[in-house]
Amino acid sequence: MPETTRMVLAGEGGQGVQAIAEILAEAANEEGRQALYIPSFGVEQRGGVSVAFLQIGDHAIGSPKFLRGDVVAALSDRAVRRIAPYAGPETTFIYDSAMEGVADDLPRNAARVMPVPAMEVAKKEFQPRVYNMVIMGALIGATGIIPLDRAKTALEKKLGYKFEKRPQLRELNFRALERGMELGRGGMGGGLN
To answer: Whole-prediction pTM value?
Structure first.
């Protein structure tokens, strides 16, 4: 894995892209690592593409900007088109396999293009609301960027107030995260080259 892992995540507003980035950054900080997260929202008032730029490393991160991501993940068809330019020959590009009509928009220059059946799994095994947890688990499983226990701790920090009101949500989110990790490991063989 590179010294600093650069990630670009994108999806429609409300899909939880920013939450994923915040949780991963928090987990990295809890691990004693450096994390830099920058949100970017579409100009549309509703329904715009939301993009999160995240860097995680073991040393100080020199610049918030980068041209190519080591990992690029798209949660919607518009997001594929929006962030495909961040893919390069070292990039793992992750997208939801339920998206139709994106084949022509997927980056041809990426090292790996990894479809993940996140929405299908969320609907069949859990509920659609934990879709972003399945995606986050796939990112963790594909990269090994943070340990699962750190992700759960960060998720608890972010959503603990909801978990206290409805304890079953904790288990639901944790299981979706674990299932996503299985998907990420299965598609990647356990980590980045």
So the answer is: 0.89
